[in-house]
Amino acid sequence: xxxxxxxxxxxxxxxxxxxxxxxxxxxxxxxxxxxxxxxxxxxxxxxxxxxxxxxxxxxxxxxxxxxxxxxxxxxxxxxxxxxxxxxxxxxxxxxxxxxxxxxxxxxxxxxxxxxxxxxxxxxxxxxxxxxxxxxxxxxxxxxxxxxxxxxxxxxxxxxxxxxxxxxxxxxxxxxxxxxxxxxxxxxxxxxxxxxxxxxxxxxxxxxxxxxxxxxxxxxxxxxxxxxxxx
Length: 230
Hints:
The protein has helices spanning 10-16, 20-26, 39-46, 50-66, 79-112, 118-153, 157-187, 199-229.
């Protein structure tokens, strides 16, 4: 794929060019949970400048390729490799980051919540997100991922039925946490701290943006690559 067009889907673009996710987030184009619609639908729905965004996307892709970059082809890697990557790159990050970042979210709510009511809502949303993601990752590691690894070694109809049943629930949970992230982005104006924000405030917003980046990549790998391969 040398040039992206309006007929390509965000999910497939990110598979080829992972950094496209940065541009899609700026324009609020879904590339994970709803990433299978052609780009033209997002452009029309959000009244976006099609030519400008495509030009920026293709120029960035060309530069990325010229720098010698190449995306990992997760479509051909073993299922075990893909599962292990998700666990070590995304689950491990969440288990470490969620409680630590939660302390910062609570801190700025306590300190600034009286004058900035949106911090109360952010605190609620983050608490719900943290609970959902902790339960979700535990379910995947304990119940689903072992089945996928077993299926790769010894495929059977019984195993595939178990995995499909579990995947439906997981994708529904992905939709829910995706909505929570989008709402957190909305009420924080894209995780942009105000001009006079203290250090803790700035750190909190920067880490929330990093959390969003990591989680959307996590969901993308599962919804658009892992689950369709089963």
